[in-house]
């Protein structure tokens, strides 16, 4: 994902804030939209067709907890403050990405970060 070109139909234009993990590309980062809503973005996987990401809206306090290592990465996505996350599929060959809201109870175990991992 090119963190300098973040725009999604349902979220809007995003401004990159900070990278937390970089392994052969950005895998975990924070960003915010024009209204100030902050997100933590987490890379799920890559297929032949797309990269799959979760964008979870976070409050200022939650983001501080993340930075201060007071909450595990898995908890950010399995117990989101708003009870849902954005699932983004960034297609390699199509112009438009797919984005949908996933309720926390519908998040697949295999899509979550490993247990007991801090940023």
Describe this structure in words.
- By secondary structure, this protein is mainly beta.
- The chain has one domain.
- Helix content is 12%, strand content 45%.
- It contains two helices and seven strands; from the N terminus they run βββββααββ.
- The protein has helices at residues 60-67, 73-78; strands at residues 6-8, 12-22, 26-33, 38-46, 50-58, 84-91, 98-103.
- It has a seven-stranded antiparallel beta sheet with strand order 1-2-3-4-5-6-7.
- The longest helix is centred in the middle third of the chain and has 8 residues, at 60-67.
- The mean pLDDT is 84.
Number of domains: 1
Question: Based on CA inertia axes, which overall geometry fits?
Answer: globular
Structural class: mainly beta
Unreliable parts: none
Q: Report the end-to-end length measured between terminal Cα atoms.
A: 19 Å
Instruction: Give the strand line-up of the largest sheet.
Output: 1-2-3-4-5-6-7
